[in-house]
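Checklist before submission:
- one chain only
- standard amino acids only
- sequence pasted in full

Submission:
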Amino acid sequence: MNPILDYYNALAGNYDTNRFGNSYGQFIDRQERQVLDRLVKRDKLSKGKFEANRFLAEPTIFGVRN
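Returned file contents:
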């Protein structure tokens, strides 16, 4: 079989304990969540800007243009 796949499959059973069962893993988890929260908020803001720009680019929908 694939040695890389075997290696990661062997780790999978204890991953949560090894990853989150110590203070360093918990620290890394908090750091990652903060980064992801910022990225998600930034993505939502950029999508909001896109939606606003789309409406401005299509003023005929709102009857602005003749």
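Reviewer check: The helical segments are 3-12, 15-20, 23-57.
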